[in-house]
Records
---
Amino acid sequence: MKTKNKSFVLKGKLLWSLALVLALGFNSCSNDDDNKEQIINEEISGAYFLNYGAFGHGGSSITRYDFRKDVNTNNYFQAQNPGIILNSNIQYGATYKDSVYLIGNMTDELISLDLYFRPGGNAIREGLANPRYFVGEGDLLYISCWGAKPDYKTMPDSYIAVYNTKTRKVERKIDLPGGPEGLALANGKLYAALNYIPKVAVIDLSTEAITSIDLPAVSTYFVSDADNNLYLAIASYDPGAETGLAYINTSTDELEHNYKLPGVSTTYASILAENSNAGTLYLTAASWVEEGTNNWVQKGAIWSFDTETKEFSEFITGLEGAQGIVVNPVNNDVYILLSPSAVEAGEVAIYNAKGEHQKDINVGVSPYWALFLD
């Protein structure tokens, strides 16, 4: 076990938003298919960190780290798109079917990019109110939304937006109270972690009928195991709640176990990750601690979970400002996303699977999510 001490201070739990000025007509670097494949392998391979920025003050950015060449490029989006500005904050982003999709709030929208992070068309706004997260199947993206006027208590107006990637329209909404956050797909069903009531919603996609699974506390994000069952981060704003990892059997839709771990992070970021064979999961346990009057510090650790033995182990301790964690699917290196404050540039600390520190890289303000291209 390794310990990494940083003096990272955050000034409160952030909200999320995005406003992006888009331009049309970007093309890939080559019209020749063979050359294009060669260019993609050479120029897009790497880890891409989605830096949230400072709420209300802009500064959102994307950092590209070519881990094979050990080359780090900040402000990658701006370099790829001269004159196009990320004016506010990235909520979430991921790849689906050779496109990158970014979700934003306040200007509530879904933005599609190519694998060079160049815009593929106008942002989609109609039908999206406080979008949070998405998963995709076929031509459809399922997007969790909190609704136009969330009450932050029971979230009665939240829903799932069903977006068609071909028509570029939200085709319909599935009403889902409770504040859906993370989503997962398994066995023809959509699973939604509800962040304001202690349940998981289960939507049968053939009928859109909704059932639920009771939890000991509210939940945030999923990962899948080798059998297509789900692990789910259980978090709570109540220090006495039983937080940890829930295990859901997707054949029976039952909560089979809650593997307890105190202090699971409530941050809306990549707090749960898995390695390439889903044999090891990583969970962020970090909470706000007041050190002096109005001086709040986020302290905690990263824990690993062995899916065979069902046991937690401390992976990295003594962290301050740990926002999220991602695993490089190529080499299983673990990237810990760190924020010194809400307005300063962040850092990514890289460890191998044994917990041995490899290096640190500088990124943008508040790195919360990452995606990998190869």
Note: Confidence is low (pLDDT under 50) at residues 1-41.
---
Amino acid sequence: MSDKKKFTYKDAGVDVKAGEELVTSIKDIVRETHGVEVLSDIGGFGGLFRLDFKKWKKPVLVSSVDGVGTKLIVAFKAQKYDTVGQDLVNHCVNDIAVCGAEPLFFLDYFSTGKLDQKIAFDVIKGFSTACKENNCALIGGETAEMPDIYKTGEFDLAGTIVGIVDENNLISGKEIKSTDVLIGIPSNGLHTNGYSLARRVLFDKFSINDKPEVLDKTIGEELLRIHRSYLHIIRKLKAIKGVKGFSHITGGGIEGNTKRIIPKDLKLHINWNSWDIPSIFSLIQDIGNVPDESMREAFNMGIGLIAVISKDSVKSVTSTLDKMNEPYFEIGHIK
């Protein structure tokens, strides 16, 4: 009989049984996101979504994929995992909503060194919460255990959203012209961008539970504020004549993202003094002695969504936002 040591998959760091138990534990919260369009249950080889294309004259599918970035490191430090899943869904939803699309379904990728079922459950519960809030289905995902890539307690996330819009209602920004106005809708913090710079500056001076005088929350709570979904605002505003484009302010900041939707021969004029910069950004800039240019490139600076509208539609847009109790700022124009 051979005396060689026997190695199993579990010995190599991959616990198949733990993965199966996770799938069982999340079935109920995932099913809560399903409507009659979802034909498959979690755990299958593919997610099945039945779509009635008769509702659209010229249906166009719109998709986007993204991650949460190094915001995850803040979650590791705070040992709080139920918000980053919401961040990811809302980020992806915003990216297709600015094109005029309605979200249909979402799929996630969760990769980790060693699967902790409690952590994974919290993350996936966040996916489910945000999917319900955005009226889209969580129809599938992948959980990968890779001990040689991630340290214990670490994981990474990615997500894919698929939505639909009638081709006639696509929002492309091609009608934007000089003198059009920029209406900014506030963010509630960093959202999911600029965390490499923020962590480098803040954690050199503060711990995760410290509460600087200029903030009303601890560093951890402030940095883990959930990335807003702007879907409900976009739904209202896109129906108003003269609303020509939307910009979701993520990596690259206000200018970098809004340039993506305006014709090449036009430029942005941003009045950086037209809104109050939230305290978290001022704190980062002051402590790190970060130049304005770097701040504006890395962060949203308190503006999470921009609507580009004609001068004639300003009153209609602002009146609609007032009725929704949504704050806004006129932050510049097209020139």
Note: Residues 108 and 159 are 4 Å apart (CA to CA).
---
Amino acid sequence: MTHDGRPQDIEEILLGGPLRHTRKEVERLSGVSDDYARRIWQALGFPTPPDDEVAFTDGDADALREIKELLQDDLIDEEMVLQLVRAVGQTMGRLASWLGDVWLQRLGEAPTADVVTAALAATGELRPAFERLLLHGWRRQLAAAGMRAAATTASASADPAAGIAWLSVGFADVVSFTQLSRRLDGDALAAFVERFESTAAEAVAEHGGRVVKTLGDEVLFVASDPGAAAEIGLRIAEYFNADPEVPKVRVGMAYGEVIQRLGDVFGTPVNLAARLTATAHAGTVLIDGALAAALPIGGYDVTDLRPRPLQGLGKVRPRLLRRAVTDGRGGARSPG
């Protein structure tokens, strides 16, 4: 594998061809209007270049042309395409930054111009394999999203047209993250955040949930099955409780009617889960009454705590969730 080459040459490899068109030219070639093309570039997360700047490839023209063809379908309109383009821009932007960080760490040098060029060259050489992996991952995620939508449609309590479903919503939050960020250097902090996110993601995936988003020291997840949500929350807290060298994690969860929109979730259960997380002690899992009532009998110990005011929600009685401890005869007893 070689890592040499001019940055301009590597850019052409990554883009699939040389920059040869101005904005006006690429719009003329694709047949997409000036205003809509501007909105597409902005939705992708890029500023609109000056009219006379050569900033686009033949691939850009092809992509716009394909968008125009998509718009011929009665099920697709301009706003829907913009929403999807925005999702692609945000997701791919984070993925590209992530890949860049991984390459620089792998090369093990300070990020000089030569090191960055080497990372770009390596990415160019591996691009076909990366693209196949991305496409396969997208197909698997699309299939999973389709099955979730089918399950939601089959639920009598859901309204798929409005994006409404009954879900367990959970937040996992690193305790004292601000102090941790001051104590650790950049590499150590990044390593811990990666450990936290990967541990949470594995627990969520193993029990059939979905990570909605990560915010460095916090992970938002959902699960359709209340028992699965309980396992996710307990597994994440237990993992970090077992290691005295790392900060503990607290979890808050709630169950109820949730609005699903563009991959995100909204509604009272989301707000309640966030407030429960903020009030939980380090290493514990708090849940609301609805989730407590929906849990399978016998597998968990749920302890009512005193009601407390939660911002925007009034007085709420949290429940402390723990695993039930067997009494040695197959029965369950309180762990307290």
Note: The mean pLDDT is 83.
